[in-house]
Description:
Elements: E1 3-13, E2 15-24, E3 29-35, H1 41-48, H2 60-70, H3 80-100, H4 104-107, E4 115-121, H5 130-142, E5 147-151, H6 170-187, E6 192-196, H7 203-212, E7 220-222, H8 230-239, E8 244-246, H9 252-261, E9 267-268, H10 272-275, H11 277-290, H12 303-314, E10 322-324, E11 343-344, E12 347-349, H13 362-366
Parallel strand pairs: 4-5, 4-10, 5-6, 6-7, 7-8, 8-9
Antiparallel strand pairs: 1-2, 2-3, 4-12, 11-12
The structure holds magnesium ion.
The site of magnesium ion has 5 residues, from loops.
Amino acid sequence: xxxxxxxTGEVWGHGYSCYVRIYTDVGLTGTGECIHGGDGIQGLIxxxxxxxxxxxxxxxxxxxxxxxxxxxxxxxxxxxxxxxMTGIEIALWDLVGKATGLPVYALLGxxxxxxxxxxxxxxxxxDDSPQANADKAKEVVDQGFTAIKFDLDDMRHPKKxxxxxxxxxxxxxxxxxxxxxxxxxxxxxxxxxxxxxxxRYDTGSAIRxxxxxxxxxxxxxxxxxPPENIDxxxxxxxSTSTPICAGENLYxxxxxxxxxxxxxxxxxxxxxxxxxxxxxxKKIANLAEIYYIPLAPHNVCGPLGTIASxxxxxxxxxxxxxxxxxxxxxxWHDLVQADPPLIQDGxxxxxxxxxxxxxxxxxxxxxxxxxxxxxxx
Length: 377
Ligand SMILES: [Mg+2]
């Protein structure tokens, strides 16, 4: 079997996802999805195709490493180029699964669990009051989710003095505590509650916020400081009993090396369809396992990329929970051929069909294409 062609298409959801389809000389195809690859993602994937056209798709790790090594001088350590490689890697796994008759989790070494626990990223909408957030939290938990996440950072907070300065002021901090407390009280002590800061605070402010939230037994506080300085992240983690989670803007094993080896966080959150793909994601999870650090992947993908993440999450022991970020985007459910809907009571249950196990609904995808582009043209 040889790879003959790669085609792509961009579909709107949480920004644009890029769908990747790989064709072969035996008629089999595989389809993947990557996200946050930037406006030039289709061009990047077209450029990478020269490294894998004519190759045997069964050698997924070899093809991954071939693309990475040939592109090191073009920046294949992090960023959009790695995301482009990731879309190809996920499509390759779907293809190899279909060629062998095996689900992707089996190709990754088998599964530790049948169903993947999801957490819902929640937004109250225009009214960001504690009561509105509490109401949203209850609504989401009533749908069956056992873990939820809200944003605490507010770049448009009326009492904020300067959007570029990273210091939290007392009014902002009081509002954060009020919102987080309202959510915790609304859902009770057993629901897991995470809060995201999007890397928008300086070290001293992050420590103040983490300590102010200690009584709420959060599942985690996410990205309290920007992601580049691992020592600053470790200082925050060492200062508080609030668990710290980070990593959505890091790439590949090397991006996670210091975060894990310095034990700068309690939980890591690689975005698998953005930063590494499925086998590299498993390697990152295994690295974290050495330090008994759990994996809670970031995920803003459509259903196909989310399913790809589920296969990796099934294949590692230290999986904790996977993000679902499309609560306010109902066309998520239309983008995959799934009946009943993919998420049931806060879980995705993997099937044992070959490859990713579900197919993109191309008719639905056509309705949300990047203007002026075509799907797999
Ligand atoms: Mg985040």
